[in-house]
Amino acid sequence: MATHPPEPFRIKMVEPIQLIDKKSRETALQRAGYNIFGLKSDEVFVDLLTDSGTGAMSQDQWSGIMLGDESYAGARSYQRLSETIKEIFGFKHFVPTHQGRAAENILCAVILKEGQYVPSNMHFDTTEGNIRARGGRPVNLVCEEAFCDDPDVPFKGNMDLEKLENFIQEVGVENIPLGMITITNNAGGGQPVSLENLRGVSKIYKKYAIPFFIDACRYAENAYFIKVREPGYEEKSTLEIAREIFALADGATMSAKKDAIVNIGGFLACNDPALFEKIKNECILREGFITYGGLAGRDLDAIAVGLREGLQEDYLAYRLGQTRYLVERLKEEGVPVIEPAGGHAVYINAGKLLPHIPQGEYPGQALTVAMYREGAIRGVELGSVAFGHPDPDTGEMVYPEMDLVRLALPRRTYTQSHLDYVVKVLGSIVKQAKDLRGFRITYQPPLMRHFSCTFEPL
Ligand code: F0G
Q1: Could you read off the pLDDT of 322-340 as tens digits, one per residue?
Q2: Does 186 sit in the ligand 1 pocket, CB within 6 Å?
Q3: What separation in Å is there between the alpha carbon of 429 and the centre of ligand 1?
Q4: Contacts of 21 (CB under 8 A, 6+ apart)
Q5: How far is CA 165 from each of CA 83, 182, 183, 202, rounded to the nearest angstrom?
Q6: What mean pLDDT, rounded, does the chain reach?
Q7: How many A from CA of 52 to the centre of ligand 1?
Q8: Do 283 and 105 touch, CB atoms closer than 8 A?
Q9: Under a CB-based contact definition with an 8 Å cutoff, are residues 216 and 89 in contact?
Q10: So what's the pLDDT on residue 391?
């Protein structure tokens, strides 16, 4: 029978949750315009909307909060964070930011001009949004295997190196002010990138003198995948692997709400002193002085402690064990899931589960609503709603390769019985899959529509 390594912690504080009845769930859905972002958290039983900022902090992180130094400039908390970032990431400069997208915004503001391209394996929605908001064009060059069914491909997050080099030659280096890679690849199933691939990507960006920035949100999970899947890294610690990863890059954007296990925070790091001058100015303008960057001093301490805890290997074995467990159990129920299991989340292939619903009627949205209606479980659509967009040249709708629904696991928060509950609910949805219907969008904003658009059932 499937199982996962036991939690390497015990619970010392609890937060009650309750399952509201079916009729109340229906009312909540209607009020929210069928957009699960419009639900109140009290209306949700198991909340797998995101692993971002939703984890449980440790006793050492809470102790760190008490030590927070709230000085406007040069706080001790900043020094502690600075030492930790030096040790793990090794970049020469950094500014704290209030979250990952703020780091992306600053980076795009200082480096990107209208009409320019930013390649990556796959950009996440906020990165795409920040690039588009400056008139830039995000480009996804993930490897072909990313979309194959083979459960034994170890690094489906890898970038296609040939595509990358062809792309650079096609559009010209002068039109690529920055190259990125996302580890793990959140928009593509939470799949890791190998060190071999990172070295290849780095070599190409270097060859063309394109600054290389890593979207590092889930770098610790990626490092652990490298340890257990990439030959030659079994004996290396996750810290050593992380250092090797970041030594290949010129900088990083980080949402500390993921692998630093805090409720808020992020940073932008780089090596180039001239670029950092611009970053500092933009940070002061938008976020705050460079030694706190939109956060409280106590947040910086919680991040410093969390960055180290996030790399602990017994924790990572349990964490990746949880997603693997959920994938195994869902498969037993006939739910089509992306394999192998990702780091932070399980991705259900809604397009496959609901082949009768076309992309323009949003199969992922149909499944997301069904999960809430059936069990008050909140997941998130990462498919035609989140990534569908009009082509900038033709205006025609472009849909993503897959219509996924993501069940993200908050860190150190839910137990195996919560996961078993999720499996049971999805099992009953599989049985009624052919009766599920699609949706029509009744309102949408111009950018990042999935957060606030509303729907009507078809
Ligand atoms: N990059 C990646 C890969 C992300 O997954 C996220 C956030 C960000 C950047 C932005 O960070 O939220 O701190 O501004 N992802 C969350 C999610 C929201 O649910 O996957 P942020």
Answers
A1: 999 999 999 999 999 999 9
A2: yes
A3: 28
A4: none
A5: 36, 18, 20, 11
A6: 96
A7: 7
A8: no
A9: yes
A10: 86
Interatomic CA distance for residues 180 and 210, integer angstroms: 10
Looking at residue 310, what is its pLDDT? 98
Q: Does ligand 1 have an atom closer than 6 angstroms to the CB of 282?
A: no
For residues 287 and 252, is the Cβ–Cβ distance under 8 A?
no
How far apart are alpha carbons 448 and 65 in whole angstroms?
Answer: 33
Query: Which residue's entry shows tokens 């995000």?
Result: 138
Rounded distance between C-alpha atoms, residue 167 and residue 139, angstroms: 9
How many residues are listed for the chain in this entry?
Answer: 458
Please report the pLDDT score of residue 1 as a whole number. Answer: 67
The predicted structure's pLDDT at residue 344: 97
Which residues of the chain are modeled with pLDDT < 70? 1
Helix axes 416-431, 313-332, angle to 10 degrees: 20
d(CA 244, CA 214): 13
Of 128, 255, 378, the one to substitute when testing ligand 1's pocket (max ligand atoms within 8 A of C-beta) is 255
- Is residue 52 in contact with ligand 1, taking CB distance under 6 Å? yes
The answer, as to whether pTM is greater than 0.85, is yes
At 205-260, the pLDDT tens digits run: 999 999 999 999 999 999 999 999 999 999 999 999 999 999 999 999 999 999 99
Distances (CA, A) of 246 to 9, 198, 220, 397: 29, 9, 12, 36
Sole residue written with tokens 């200082």:
110
Residue nearest ligand 1's atom 12 by CA: 100
**What is the rounded distance in angstroms from the CA atom of residue 363 to the CA atom of residue 347?**
14
Amino acid code (one letter) for 435: D
